[in-house]
Amino acid sequence: MKIATYNVNGINGRLPVLLRWLSEALPDIVCLQELKAPDEKFPEAALAELGYRAIWQGQKSWNGVAILSRAGEIHETRRGLPGEAEDTHSRYIEAAVAGILIGGLYLPNGNPRPGPKFDYKLRWFDRLIDHAAGLIESGLPVMIAGDFNVMPTERDVYKPERWLDDALFAPEARAAYFRLLDQGWTDALRTTHPDETIYTFWDYFRNAYARNAGLRIDHLLLSPALSDRLVAAGVDAHVRGWEKTSDHAPVWIELRDG
């Protein structure tokens, strides 16, 4: 089974790119972020033509998350994280698909730091950690995947010295990421490529993609009940080079049958 995460940076504006990649890569399940579209503008019909069912939580102009499946029905279990009822951002969606519980997320950026946006990022991270603890304790095969807006280590960022004041590389955000991993989650991409320079995002500015001046901020985390099924993981970095593409590339894992 092949499962991917992809921050599409506007699902309707990038729809040709998304459909081209889906047709090429043929992932069984996909978590999407930054739909930047209200619910009624989600391109359900175009995805169905490729054989994908979908659930989504849209938001006009910002945020938005979805789960796609061509591996069977999607049984939605949650929209949004518990713990902050007034948070109306569309950033988390969870469902059972093909025997796996999948949480798709778009973690807040947090810039500028310090400030209220960074405070919100840390609160959101704490809520994720609290919820993820219950997922681990369930003993089920669980995956949390999406745009975490965190580079965990210096190996995950081009010229880390330039990012010391950024919310994506802040010590508090990186510490939160490792608090999450310490629950027992496996960072699939880093576990598979422990010593490689591997990125998932390249800015549109300063010719970043051509220079491979990237960041690793899109992650797939596997619970203990799922991690022993991990066969491979990678980044479809070439998609970042396509015309009118997202600034992120799709990230994927392959799992053996459970």
What structural keywords apply?
258 residues; alpha+beta; Deoxyribonuclease I, Chain A; 14 strands; globular; ExoIII-like
Helix-strand blueprint:
Layout: E1 2-7, H1 15-25, E2 29-33, H2 44-48, E3 53-57, E4 65-69, E5 74-79, E6 92-97, E7 100-106, H3 116-137, E8 142-147, H4 171-181, E9 186-187, H5 188-192, E10 201-202, H6 208-211, E11 214-215, E12 218-222, H7 224-227, E13 230-235, E14 251-255
Parallel strand pairs: 1-2, 7-8
Antiparallel strand pairs: 1-14, 2-4, 3-4, 5-6, 6-7, 8-12, 9-12, 10-11, 13-14
Helix pairs in contact: 3-4
How would you portray this structure in words?
The protein has 258 residues and is α+β, with helices and mostly antiparallel strands. It has a single domain, classed as 4-Layer Sandwich (Deoxyribonuclease I, Chain A). Helices cover 24% and strands 26% of the residues. The chain contains 7 helices and 14 strands. The chain has helices at residues 15-25, 44-48, 116-137, 171-181, 188-192, 208-211, 224-227; strands spanning 2-7, 29-33, 53-57, 65-69, 74-79, 92-97, 100-106, 142-147, 186-187, 201-202, 214-215, 218-222, 230-235, 251-255. The strands form 3 sheets. A 6-stranded mixed beta sheet has the order 3-4-2-1-14-13. Strands 5-6-7-8-12-9 form a 6-stranded mixed beta sheet. A hairpin with a 7-residue loop joins β3 and β4.
